[in-house]
Write a structure and sequence with these properties.
Elements (H helix, E strand, L loop, with lengths): L2 H22 L3 H22 L4 H23 L6 H20 L3 H7 L4
Helix pairs in contact: 1-2, 1-3, 2-3, 3-4
Length: 116
């Protein structure tokens, strides 16, 4: 895995926190943190999409972010646990992993050649 894919995964990780921030922000500092996370997350996704196929980057970003947000809501915010939700998250993440696996590695060769 190269640095560009790591950017996508970090961007998705931050997405979980800014989505939670939008829901639970209540004062200047929590809103400021949320806005910073939105900017950093989108910056990482955009820079990754300049190297990797944009559609794949966006699908991975949104899929991991959505799955992570649902799991965080269940674990930390009292959302009811439902097997149907878990099954659908697994299906979603399977599709995201599949997209990453079938993405052409030609973009990895371009990055190693000096473009990052």
């Amino acid at each position: 895995m190269n640095i560009t894919w790591i950017k996508v995964f970090v961007a998705a990780f931050f997405e979980v926190f800014w989505v939670i921030g939008i829901t639970h922000a209540y004062d200047f500092w929590t809103w400021t943190g949320t806005v910073i996370l939105i900017i950093v997350s989108n910056y990482l996704m955009i820079t990754a999409a300049q190297v990797l196929p944009a559609g794949t980057v966006y699908a991975v970003f949104v899929g991991l972010g959505a799955g992570g947000t649902v799991i965080a809501e269940i674990l930390f915010f009292g959302e009811p646990f439902k097997w149907g939700k878990i099954f659908l998250i697994v299906v979603l993440l399977s599709g995201v992993i599949g997209l990453k696996l079938v993405t052409d590695n030609e973009s990895d060769e371009v990055e190693e050649g000096g473009r990052s």
